[in-house]
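Example record

One chain of 209 residues, shown exactly as stored in the release files.
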Amino acid sequence: MGKLWTWVPMTALLLAALLCGCGGENGDNQQTLALREAFLSMESCSGSMEVTADYGQRVYEYTVEFSGDGNGGMNLVLTAPEEVAGITAHIAQGQTALEFDGVALETGPLNQEGLSPLDALPAFVAAMQTGYLAESGSEWMGETEVLRLVFREPDRTPGQGMETVLWFDKEGGSLRQGELRSDGYTVVRCGFPSFALIQPTLEEKGTEA
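Predicted structure tokens for this chain:
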């Protein structure tokens, strides 16, 4: 039996285990499972995001274009504001911090763990692939119905430690917004004018079977 066919049931079991901690309607859970599968099997992702980093006394805003692979690698290019436009960064697989080819973005860490504003995107992807889903449910974002997912460590209560919160369109499943929260305080908020997951082609899947 090829690897492709053994991977599918194992992934289903993993996804079921990850959903044990969340509530939500059956339809929400089904959409969450489908999104998990899409992020786990993705070949790459790309798009743009509008980042707001809140330091309490200071608030910084950036616009970023990005592309990444399914193994944690990520390329980021800042497009706004003008004084940092063109600064690029690359996150290699397994890295936990960003190093930029310049000092214009040096704004200091967001929390004691050294969180950077642009650590948010890798954190969103990691949450969807392997994070513990603590809450799920539907709500409205303006006139759009969205699926809201909250990830945190299993032994933490709401508002304690680091939390990742993601909103997806109920219709179409596109990522609309993401937040990183530290002890209940939103330190990074990202809006996504565009976000695309690229899946392997049938030919590429066939080579894994």
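Notes: The beta strands are 44-54, 59-69, 74-80, 88-91, 133-141, 144-151, 162-169, 175-182, 185-198.
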